[in-house]
Amino acid sequence: MAVQLPVAFLQRMEAFLGDQYDDFLVSYDNPRYAGIRVNTLKIGVREFREISPFELRPIPWCDSGFYVDESLRPGKHPYYHAGLYYIQEPSAMAPAEVLDIRPGDRVLDLCAAPGGKSTQIAAKLNGQGILVTNDISAERTKALAKNMELYGVRNAIVLNETPERIARAFPGYFNKILIDAPCSGEGMFRKDEDMARQWERHSIAKCTVMQRDILRTAASLLAPGGRIVYSTCTFAPEENEAQIAAFLEQNPAFELISLPEGRGFSPGRPDWLAMLAEKAQALPEEASVSPSALEGPEADATSRCGRLWPHLIEGEGHFLAVLQHKGETRPVSEEPAGLSAEGRSLGNSPVSRQRRGRNEPVRHPGKKAPNERELADSWRAFASEHLAAIPDGEALWFGGHVYISPVAKERLDGLKTVRPGWYVGTVKNGRFQPGHPLAAALKADEALRVLDLSLADGEAIRYLKGETLEIAESRIRRPAKIGAKGFVLVTVDGFSLGFGKWLDGLLKNEYPAGWRWT
Ligand SMILES: C[S@@+](CC[C@H](N)C(=O)[O-])C[C@H]1O[C@@H](n2cnc3c(N)ncnc32)[C@H](O)[C@@H]1O
């Protein structure tokens, strides 16, 4: 066996799996599966299949997901830099699928970094509604923010908060919540040997307490009639069915929804809860899973949860539960509690100055924020000179940058906000300087000046490496009467890569240094 599995883990699995154990064990001799998921914010699934550089085989539980040959290095292709697909472990594509996202939803991804499932949710929202994507790890939110930008997401807010603090700012606000919970990671041992080595450290007991707290808080963030999907990448029933049974016992307003058939999901294992109940102290007291939750009707209901097994499907181990609130849905107010119309306006109103979060003044204490008018004027002037239309949404000044946010700024006061919305640029000396995320989210027909590079002659890769390119004026596609000089949206086969600044036959490269092709 290629992976060194912890002995205590194997003993547990043998006891739980019985006669399926041998097949389970053999799956560790098989190679792991690699997947990509088409980013439908940028390209349709059918369209991508027509231009895909890789052979694609559908993943049964995700319509935009495909198995690919990992040795073809999908991360090393200009289409990856254009955000056309996300590289994702196939089983990890399941939770966002069963959350049943509709454009216009208000979605919270509580444990989101590095953002695989958030990019999937954003694609399903298709630019409508709100995605609040959060992770407790400041370091990991950097990758989360970058992924939101690479995949051209316009309606997401990135937070670095505890669930409890988000619940104070957004009580009962969301109609869809994903909890991709921190867990002991048993399902990922084949993909990531480090997880196997760290199994004891991420002890099951410790994880159950975190999971219990996150689930509890999520219930207070959900609007009546909303849905929570709870997922883990572990087999341990203490972290899976037991959490769900305890949650249902304490929250009778929720019910478990069965997973769709024919997509590879195996049922949850209430019988394993009975096995836990037999063992004294199977769960730590702090996890507050009562013995009755392991044996009552809530335990029986966990057969409606889903499991993805490495010996039964092509992917790693995963657990899923769909918790539906039985209440009737009703509209949720966009306005934070107690906020006047004056407070809602952005910029430097006295109300917003007083209410500013701890994040904003700390980040750029020396910078003088332009007033609301200057900000709006410079963004509009840039947009009218460079874009076919001004994108919807109000511009706000935050930490020295201009964003278009899907929520009133005051909603974020006091929260550690990594990105309050779509970063469109900054204002320096009264002039607007566009940001890379603006370019990444634009479609070619939204920019007035476009330079299309092709894969064939290597120009796209030279651009991605940060080189200055010699470009004849005639190659800058633009409406008649508009000069070529200025910011140009650079595309590969029509899909945006970033900005360049064209002047006198040269394209100055604006592709961010940290993102370059190496
Ligand atoms: C399984 S990973 C998430 C993977 C992510 N959903 C994706 O698809 O890319 C779990 C994440 O939970 C975060 N986390 C741990 N405890 C948390 C808490 N109390 N609140 C929010 N996030 C937490 C971890 O930092 C980690 O990034």
TrEMBL record:
It holds the Pfam family Methyltranf_PUA. One of its GO terms (biological process) is RNA methylation. S-adenosyl-L-methionine binds at C111, A112, A113, P114, G115, G116, K117, D135, D180. It comes from the Bacteria. The active site is at C233. One of its GO terms (molecular function) is RNA binding. Residues 357-373 have a biased composition (Basic and acidic residues). Residues 328-373 are annotated as: Disordered. InterPro entries: Methyltr_RsmF_N, MeTrfase_RsmB-F_NOP2_cat, MeTrfase_RsmB-F_NOP2_dom, Nol1_Nop2_Fmu_2, RCMT, RsmF_methylt_CI, SAM-dependent_MTases_sf. Keywords: Cytoplasm, Methyltransferase, RNA-binding, S-adenosyl-L-methionine, Transferase. Residues 24-326 form the SAM-dependent MTase RsmB/NOP-type domain. Belongs to the class I-like SAM-binding methyltransferase superfamily. RsmB/NOP family. This is rRNA cytosine-C5-methyltransferase.
